[in-house]
From TrEMBL:
Name of the featured protein: Prp19 complex subunit Cwf12
Family as reported in the entry's similarity comment: Belongs to the ISY1 family.
GO biological process assignments: generation of catalytic spliceosome for second transesterification step
Lineage of origin: Eukaryota, Fungi, Dikarya, Ascomycota, Taphrinomycotina
Superkingdom, natural source: Eukaryota
Locations listed in the record: Nucleus
Main location: nucleus
GO cellular component: a single term: U2-type spliceosomal complex
Keyword Nucleus among record annotations: yes
InterPro entries: Helix_hairpin_bin_sf, Isy1, Isy1_sf
Keywords assigned by UniProt, alphabetized: mRNA processing, mRNA splicing, Nucleus, Spliceosome
Pfam family, one: Isy1
Gene3D superfamilies recorded: Helix hairpin bin
Amino acid sequence: MSSKQYVAGSKPVEKRQRNIKNINSVATCEKHRQSVVKDLSKKINKIQSAQLPDYQIRDLNDAINQLMREKHAWEVQIHELGGINYLYRKAKLFADDGEKIGEVDDYRYYGRARELPGVKELFEADMTFVPERLRKQEMQHRQLDAWYYGYTPLEEESSLQDFEKDISNQRLNRISKEKPNSLENWNPIVIEHVPAREEVENILLERRKSALLHRLV
């Protein structure tokens, strides 16, 4: 839509404001948001057409993404002014919500844009590695200290144990209230000896030997 005033039939229609943050009226924001939604509905329906050439599909898809960003900006402003929280409701407004390639970019492809040369191949490719790769990148950028890996300073270990004990007691009390008979025969497991790594390796080795001998017999 042009930023200038245009005429629908014989009735002039007010242009949408560019500086959304400067609008202090919820009613005005709602009106402009509805105008964006109407534009989006028309363009999303149009981009499904098999008659359009590729260059028009690309232009339409870019326009839809731009309008989606504008719609989001109006919804943020409406919420900040005390109006409806469209950000929370997430109602389905369009038959086609678009699809993203991976998790990095918010750019979406609608209708026939998913069939464009180059785009179609990306959608068909296996993108399952992307979330895992992003997770690893996020972990690398974090400032992880010894606490994250479970290494507690000796002077703070007793306070941590007291905290864990307090949390355990709170959970037991909650369980006993919700299910009074569930703790009658319950006894805490006491581990007197935690085997060292060498002991665990020897135990596993003996089990492998036993399994191998059992196969040979």
